[in-house]
């Protein structure tokens, strides 16, 4: 069988090289298609030959199945942060202190200060063995499984001149483009938006499911090597070695000698950083020689051999002219500040986001206020404060609107929520148009059209709801201005093609508030046809894993609206899929019918989510807490002592994963 092992290793090596070409060097040499083919080939060989399993195989990048809260690990060398400076005078002071402290020649390495999540990676014999977050600097979370999914981090190093064991530290980053896509998706689901790529990246790194991490396309830059036998005495030279071993080292890293060179670097990057794909918030200056670093040593908090220079947050002062309100597809109303136009980092700003009523009250905003506008890591500028000394006595306080700006209906707000809604989902135009737009999107019905298409058709009174799409004739569409016959036909064809979109996606496409893609999938499995779902009570809905009160209420409310039921019935007549397809239904069993099962602990054979799905697939119910109604506890490792005690006192049997798998075999 040795040749199989050789074949596996050769494929792993080849795929690692392609990953490096693509993610570190940005110059791929094979097509994505060929890459996927090779990856599949490797994956198949590995499945046939589990004896050659390797956690660092490129197939493991997609995310393994382990699912547990993170282990806390103590850092071998504490993870310190840097002293911050904000002025060039402070940078000069640093330079002079170093000169005085060393009384010898020295070089300063200038680097970009990446604004992400710091990470410490350990490599033993060229293999990634551990990835730990900064935590409190003394100990952090073991996020190795998640970090393995980041393509620019080498799992196995190139060459053979790396130390047997060393650490390398750097930053995990979410690129701007990924961040913007992610927020767009979250806005569609009306989920809370991430304020900046740093929060989005660190949130991603703390995800329990490495598959989600893999899907979010994180990137990395490494900037600090630690260990006993580093290749050279130069920080810069060590980084260049690290680059040869496969790490992503910023091309902006530069050795300087004089203050003039340092300032030239600072000025250049203060502008040029705006063209980078990831966020940066300053420059880091480091003494190059490791011996000199040791001689300078540390203060109680920071190294004396390095310092950060932070870029100015870009700020401007302008006048708040008015506040307007936007209505989204689910009726959510968001306030927007209209500002007197002002230049901010190269663009003219006229609007700023105000988030919700609480934020307006926090700022105590008045019309005509002089407001501070900032473009931090965020995409949309925000108002960070008010110069109240400039406020006139007659300036009116901003009161959140009581009525929908589009249809005049009084707004409502749920208990504990920050957002107001327009409840008139039947005839409020942006809600109607928004719902149709959502219905067309790729992840919903995948119909070839966007907001402009909907605007045209709605204004021409050709459509009023999603069901009307299916009565459209290309001849009617082509009569509209700017619609050629070909595009009209394409639109109608793609509407007709959408009748084969599976049930779960149709549920998502309906645009029920809080029913995103994942929830829609769970609903489709639990209620295999729309009649069952329409008949479900809130109590029945919350029995489904991950469906809470808020979602359940929203679903019940949706189907209690006659106009929604009418739309569903019309869609049904047009042949839209409103039941789970046969092949999925046929995998369902009733082996666990009537059984309520609690999952607790961590497992080896499958993830918790997979076990939850198996329980549902076999007719059982997932329950979150142990009670006298619980039939079994599916217990794994590290099941909490309180749970064990409760199970014992109530006489609920705890079964292992092996026994469970036997039950559903
Ligand atoms: S060096 C002892 N270099 O900024 C020196 N840090 O306040 C350790 N950072 O926690 C850090 N870019 O997360 C270094 N080129 C860079 C950096 C950098 C970003 C972050 C890092 C650190 C913080 C320092």
How would you characterize the overall build of this protein?
The protein has 665 residues and is an alpha+beta fold. The protein starts with a helix and ends with a helix. Helix 1 (2-24) runs antiparallel to helix 2 and helix 16 crosses helix 17. Helix 24 (641-650) links the parallel strand 21 and strand 22 (654-655). It has 25 helices and 22 strands. The strands form five sheets. Strands 12, 13, 14, 15, 16, 17 and 18 form a seven-stranded antiparallel sheet that branches. Strands 2-11-10-3-9 form a five-stranded mixed sheet. A four-stranded antiparallel sheet has the order 5-4-7-8. Bound molecules: 2-(butylsulfanyl)adenosine (IVH). 2-(butylsulfanyl)adenosine binds at residues 80-82, 111, 113-114, 118, 171, 223-224, 284, 303, 306, 308. The site of 2-(butylsulfanyl)adenosine has 14 residues, from strand 3, strand 8 and strand 11. Zn(2+) binds at residues 404, 407, 422, 428. The active site is at 113 (n6-amp-lysine intermediate).
Helix content: 25-40%
Q: Name the CATH class of the largest domain.
A: Alpha Beta
Alpha-beta classification: alpha+beta
What overall geometry do the principal axes of the alpha carbons give?
globular
List unreliable stretches of 5+ residues.
64-68
Mean pLDDT comes to 89
Helix tally equals 25
Q: Which radius of gyration do the C-alpha atoms yield?
A: 29 Å
Quick one: biggest sheet? Answer: 7 strands, antiparallel
Look up the CATH topology of the largest domain.
D-amino Acid Aminotransferase, Chain A, domain 1
% residues in beta strands: 15-25%
Output the CATH homologous superfamily of the largest domain. Answer: DNA ligase/mRNA capping enzyme
Q: Compounds present?
A: 2-(butylsulfanyl)adenosine
CATH architecture of the largest domain: 2-Layer Sandwich
Q: Please tell me the total number of domains.
A: 5
Distance between the termini: 32 Å
Number of beta strands: 22
GO molecular function: DNA ligase (NAD+) activity; metal ion binding
Catalytic activity: NAD(+) + (deoxyribonucleotide)n-3'-hydroxyl + 5'-phospho-(deoxyribonucleotide)m = (deoxyribonucleotide)n+m + AMP + beta-nicotinamide D-nucleotide
Cofactor: Mg(2+); Mn(2+)
InterPro entries: BRCT_dom (IPR001357), BRCT_dom_sf (IPR036420), DisA/LigA_HHH (IPR041663), DNA_ligase (IPR001679), DNAligase_adenylation (IPR013839), DNAligase_N (IPR013840), NA-bd_OB-fold (IPR012340), NAD_DNA_ligase_OB (IPR004150)
């Amino acid at each position: 069988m040795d040749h199989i092992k050789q074949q596996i290793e050769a494929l792993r090596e080849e795929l690692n090289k392609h990953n490096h070409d693509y993610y570190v060097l940005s110059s791929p040499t094979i097509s994505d298609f060929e890459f996927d083919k090779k990856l599949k080939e490797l994956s198949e060989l590995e499945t046939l030959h589990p004896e050659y399993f390797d956690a660092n195989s490129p197939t493991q990048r997609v995310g393994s199945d382990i699912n547990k809260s993170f282990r806390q690990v103590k850092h071998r060398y504490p993870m310190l942060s840097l002293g911050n400076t904000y002025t060039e005078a402070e940078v000069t002071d640093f330079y002079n202190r170093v000169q005085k402290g060393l009384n010898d020649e020295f070089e300063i390495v200038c680097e970009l200060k990446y604004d992400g999540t710091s990470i410490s990676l350990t490599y033993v014999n060229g293999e990634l063995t551990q990835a730990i977050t900064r935590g409190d600097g003394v100990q952090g979370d073991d996020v190795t499984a998640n970090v393995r999914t980041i393509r620019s981090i080498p799992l196995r190093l190139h060459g053979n001149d790396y130390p047997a064991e060393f650490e390398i530290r750097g930053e995990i980053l979410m690129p701007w483009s990924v961040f913007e896509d992610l927020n767009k998706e979250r806005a569609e689901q009306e989920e809370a938006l991430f304020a900046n790529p740093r929060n989005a990246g660190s949130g991603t790194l703390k995800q329990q499911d490495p598959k989600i991490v893999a899907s979010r396309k994180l990137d990395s830059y490494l900037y600090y090597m630690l260990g006993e036998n580093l290749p050279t005495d130069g920080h810069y030279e060590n980084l260049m070695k690290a680059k040869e071993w496969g790490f992503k080292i910023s091309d902006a890293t530069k050795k300087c000698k004089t203050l003039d060179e340092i300032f030239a670097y600072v000025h250049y990057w203060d502008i040029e950083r705006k063209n980078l794909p990831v966020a940066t918030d300053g420059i880091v200056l480091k003494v190059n020689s490791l011996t000199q670093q040791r001689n300078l040593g540390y203060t109680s908090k920071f190294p004396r051999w390095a310092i950060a220079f932070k870029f100015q947050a870009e700020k401007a002062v302008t006048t708040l002219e008015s506040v307007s309100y936007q209505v989204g597809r689910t009726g959510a109303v968001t306030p927007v500040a209209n500002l007197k136009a002002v230049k901010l980092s190269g663009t003219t700003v006229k609007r700023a986001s105000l988030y919700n009523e609480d934020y307006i009250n926090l700022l105590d905003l008045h019309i005509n206020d002089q407001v501070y506008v900032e473009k931090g890591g965020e995409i949309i500028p925000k108002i960070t404060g008010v110069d109240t000394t400039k406020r006139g006595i007659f300036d009116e306080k901003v009161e959140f609107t009581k009525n929908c700006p589009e249809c005049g209906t009084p707004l409502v707000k749920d208990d504990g929520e920050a957002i107001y809604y327009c409840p008139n989902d039947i005839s409020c135009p942006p809600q109607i148009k928004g719902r149709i737009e959502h219905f067309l999107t790729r992840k919903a019905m995948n119909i070839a059209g966007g907001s402009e298409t909907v605007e045209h058709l709605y204004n021409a009174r050709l459509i009023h709801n999603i069901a009307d799409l299916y009565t459209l004739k290309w001849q009617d569409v082509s009569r509209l201005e700017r619609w050629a016959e070909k595009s009209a036909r394409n639109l109608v064809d793609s509407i007709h093609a959408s009748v084969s979109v599976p049930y779960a996606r149709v549920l998502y496409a309906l645009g029920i508030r809080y029913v995103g893609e994942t929830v829609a999938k769970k609903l489709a499995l639990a209620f295999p046809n729309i009649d069952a779902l329409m008949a479900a009570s809130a109590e029945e809905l919350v029995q489904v894993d991950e469906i809470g009160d808020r979602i359940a209420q929203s679903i019940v409310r949706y189907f209690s609206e006659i106009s929604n039921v009418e739309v569903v019935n019309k869609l049904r007549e047009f042949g839209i899929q409103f039941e789970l397809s046969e092949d999925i239904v046929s995998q369902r069993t009733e082996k666990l019918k009537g059984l309520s099962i609690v999952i607790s602990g961590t497992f080896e054979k499958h993830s918790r989510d997979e076990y939850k799905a198996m329980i549902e697939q076999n007719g059982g119910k997932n329950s979150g807490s142990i009670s006298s109604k619980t039939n079994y506890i599916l217990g794994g490792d590290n099941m909490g002592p309180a749970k064990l005690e409760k199970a014992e006192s109530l006489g609920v049997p705890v079964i292992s994963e092996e026994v469970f798998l036997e039950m559903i075999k």
